[in-house]
Amino acid sequence: MTQAPAVSIKHLSKQYATNGPIIIDDLNLEVRAGEFVSLVGASGCGKSTLLNILSGLDNATTGTVEMAEQSTLMFQESALLPWLTAGKNIELALKLSGFPKDGRKARAQELLELVHLPNAYTQRPHELSGGMRQRVAIARALSQGRKVLLMDEPFAALDAITRDLLHDELIRIWEETGLTVIFVTHNVREAVRLGQRVILMSSKPGRIIQEWDVDFNEPRRIDEANVASLAHEITDRLRNEIRRHAN
Amino acid sequence: MPTNVKQTSGQPLEARKEAIVSLSAGLDALETNVAPQRSLRKRVLKALAPLAAVAVVLIVWQVATALQLAPVWVLPTPLMVWNSLVDQANQGILFASAFNSLRKGVQGFAISLVIATPIGIALGLNSALRGIARPLLTGLQQLPSVAWVPAAIIWFGLSDVTIFAVVLLGAVPSIANGLISGIDQIPPLYLRAGKVLGARGFSSIRHIVIPAAWPGYLAGLEQGWAFAWRSLMAAELIAISPALGPGLGQMLDTGRQLGDMSLVLGSIIVIMIVGVLIERLVFSPVRQRTLKNRGLVVGR
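Above: the input entities. Below: the structure tokens describing the complete assembly.
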């Protein structure tokens, strides 16, 4: 268990302006290779900022981020490019990752099959439902061949039925691929349903205030008693943290 | 610390996968709607609808001439205009003029496209550059490019260069401005997605910026073509020389010189028809396809 961490964050702070508010304050976190970590917190905890920094879209003000592997990022909206079909969206990602031209089409189809959308290749994003779009987005992220998957509330805009299904789907893909996943969410139950570890962040500034190991077996269900009772405990802690901001 | 080995009990992975696949398939089927195809009859009717307006104009015109509201040398009958065009066609002037004008219009538009696109991209992506150059571009766009004809004749003489210069000054600002607006309207999410996918520099422009800005760019191209065509007609009308070869503008001017109102009206109608055909056959299908592909139009 002394494996090198996939992600190692040390004393990370973020401030957009020198006299502006501190978004993230002295955050330390290690994520093991292959681990699934859920990050929960109320608004203003800097979750999205943290993912932007990890994915290279933004820079830390102070502190260091060491990534053993390259990462990719998924958003709340699928961010599929509307001028390309589902298949071509994946092919573009393959192309930009340097995948050889000959195999791109076959690989894109293979990835669509992995997310159970074997007939979606020629479909346009607007022709797909929200859940299907997020599955194509997962396939597109996987096509990049990165070992770390950062997810910024990817299921927040979906209906509950679709979301439950995508939880099962994401866990299955994680188990099959051995990816490291950092999953950011507002939804405590979702965090417990998915993560091996749930990390609770405070808001304004964002700090890690507590973490829980979740050692329930897969397949878990979001409506199971053990998931609910841990979620209950975490929610209580989260609410105490939110109350602190009342004054 | 616990490790990631908690996948041992419960259903085996294969059985769970089966359950997910069937559930997914059911949900996808529920959430996918197939848009009904419009019937052939409706589509044909819709395509022919604009002809109704043409018919109304022709009827009003015919009635006006039948009532002899004006002498025929002021308002000729539709048949006289038609015969005048047939006459031009028989002399080999009509199609040569239309073809030559269209060729110059298309060439001028193509050159404008090549010049305007890098300008639009540079100004769209660089706000400092835009602050400096966009007022000038907008000024040029506001200025009727026919105002450049005298200057162009002095600089370049009565040559094709003059014609192209005027066409370019008409079309380039419209195309560049359209592209800039298109870039302004790109949802930031696409640019972020592009970065995450690894698009940088030229590959970002090619794979993200231009396709994302395409609706605005296309609007600029349509306007640019309209400006190119108008500028060309204005230039042909003013800059007249045998060296320029036949053209619709020249045909129109010949009608004016001969006091031949039938030829004047006939030329105007041909100029309009060429403009409409380009819009219908080139721009309209591209625009429809763009909107449909991006889900920006609901089967109306």
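Note for the figure: Residues 1-9 of chain B have pLDDT under 50 and may be disordered.
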